[in-house]
Amino acid sequence: MSKFYVELKKVVDDSYDIEVGRNLFDTLIKDLKGSLGEGISRYAIITDSNVRRLYGEKLYERLVNEGFIVDLISFPAGEESKVRATKEMIEDEMLTKGHRRDSCIIAIGGGVVTDLAGFVAGTFGRGIPFINYSTSILGSADASVGGKTAVDTPLATNLIGLIYQPKKVYIDLASWETLPKEQISNGLAETIKHACLADKSFFEFLEANIEKLLEPNGIHNHPEICEHIAEKNCKIKYEVVKQDEREANLRQILNLGHTIGRAIETLSNYSLLHGEAVAIGLAMQAQIGEKLGYVTKEEVERVIALIEKAGLPTKLLDSMETEDVVQKLYTDKKVRKGKIRFVFQEGIGQIKQYEDGNYSIALEEDFIRKTIEEVR
Ligand code: GLY
User: What would the mean pLDDT of 115-119 be, rounded to a whole number?
Assistant: First the structure.
């Protein structure tokens, strides 16, 4: 018998730029003509039905006019599309249209688009490059940065996917002006999460300014608020990701509010938007955290008031049974040794780190059940 040792140690540089600005198609085209487009023969723009109409077709025309070989592929807008069947549909369309390993994906849209298109990129031809062009507040705050790509399954969200980093991220603030009001609120949940876990002065900035974005023409009239929010979100997120890309520990903090949030998003059959579910999850982690002595009553009230100012819910839907929520928590990715784990904020602008260095803690099912029942 023989025995071999396959030595495959790697040094990988997955660094990339995030560019925040307005109307960034010219910048993207200039980049594609430069080093970003090196070695690429063909582009697949992947988007959803809403963004296709608003930006996808325009980008397609611009790229065709500039002489690029490009296809435009879209799927119906909504979280319901973030499934394996849509991934398969995109892959088959790309294969039929002649895409191979020298192709590059440009994902243009919100979090559903970038999660799905990034996952396609990570497995198509065993991995082709992709670029994220983010057009939503939600996507710019979370999904477009950090390389988590995934699809949902009937059991829970984001269970199937991989960590695969984009080559560049563009955050187009001008596109926020075309968001309907509910999508502005939806996007602000991840922003509030970042402030709760990492930055007290950002939290105070949001307390003073968040409502202005929900006024008629609020996004258009307050470009400086949008820019500050986009930059803070990127900075808070990439500082975490660059220290713990694969979520060995620190990256769990980006799960604040998501333990309950993801569970109720699935339980609602996606009638709750991701941001709405996270908002409820944020309010509940604050209230559970108060019981554990991590935040004061006044701090909880401030968190809840900020979520409400953003036009987001803070309570479980009446139709949801506490027991169903508790059982759904077992599908969370943080579950270890059969125990449900939570991340908590400590005061405002900090995350709780435990004595063993961990950022999440296992809680007894009974305690979770009783507390959810009490605060729901
Ligand atoms: N959305 C949480 C993360 O990127 O880790």
Answer: 98
The verdict on pTM exceeding 0.85 is yes
Give 132's contacts (C-beta < 8 A, 6+ positions apart): 107, 114, 117, 118, 139, 144, 145, 166, 168, 169, 170
For residue range 86-115, list pLDDT tens digits in order.
999 999 999 999 999 999 999 999 999 999
User: Which atom, in ligand 1's list, is nearest to the CA of 148?
Assistant: 4
Ligand 1 cavity residues, CB under 6 Å: 142, 146, 148, 251, 254
For residue 189, give the amino acid letter.
Answer: A
Looking at the DSSP bridge assignments, the partners of residue 103 are: 42
- Count of C-beta atoms within a 10 Å radius of residue 332: 22
Nearest-atom index, ligand 1, CA of 146: 4
State yes or no: pLDDT of 375 exceeds 90.
no
- CA–CA gap between residue 360 and residue 342 (Å, rounded): 5
Residue 52 CA to residue 133 CA, distance in Å, equals 13
Q: How far apart are the C-alpha atoms of 213 and 200, rounded to whole Å?
A: 20
Interval 242-260: pLDDT, tens? 999 999 999 999 999 999 9
Residue whose pair of structure tokens reads 């959810």 in the numeric block: 372
Ligand 1 mean position, distance from CA 243 (Å): 13
Cα distances (angstroms) measured from residue 72 to each of 43, 106, 151: 9, 10, 21
